[in-house]
Amino acid sequence: xxxxxxxxxxxxxxxxxxxxxxxxxxxxxxxxxxxxxxxxxxxxxxxxxxxxxxxxxxxxxxxxxxxxxxxxxxxxxxxxxxxxxxxxxxxxxxxxxxxxxxxxxxxxxxxxxxxxxxxxxxxxxxxxxxxxxxxxxxxxxxxxxxxxxxxxxxxxxxxxxxxxxxxxxxxxxxxxx
Length: 177
Fold this sequence. Notes:
Layout: H1 2-30, E1 66-72, E2 75-81, H2 85-98, E3 103-109, E4 112-118, E5 123-129, E6 132-138, H3 142-160, E7 164-169, E8 172-176
Antiparallel strand pairs: 1-2, 2-6, 3-4, 3-7, 5-6, 7-8
C-alpha cells in the first residue's frame, strides 16, 4: 500500500512539473521571447536537454585541371592547365583571392586523403598563364629545397599510381586533377 501511495505521489509531482514546463514554454512563445534558430545554434528538443549543434554543409565546385609537377633548381614547379575557359577563370580568381596564405597539396584515392604536403618550406609564387597557372615553391636553404623536391617526387609517384591531386590555399580547395 505504501508503494502505491509513493508511486502516485511521484506521478502527481512529475505531472505538475511537466504541466508547468509546458505553461512556461507557451508563455515564452507568446511573449515573443523565442528566437530563430540559425545554422550552428543549439535547438531544444522539448525534453529540457540540448541537442548537438547543427552543422553547416560546406560544398564547393572545384575546377578540374591537368596538373604537371616537376623538380626545378631550387624547389618544384606545378602547372595547372585546362582548355575549359570557365574552369581556368574560376581557378585564377580563387588563386588571386586566396594568395598569401598557406598552400597545401593533398593526394586522394577513392575520396580518402592519402597524403598532404603543407608547402610552407619555401617561397610560393603563383603566375597566371593563358590556360591556367604555374606555381613554384623555392627555397635558398639547401635542406628546405631538398624537402620541397622530395615532396614533389612523392606526389608525382602517387599521381602515377592513380591518386588525384588537390591544391588548397588557406584550406580552401582551388583545383584538382
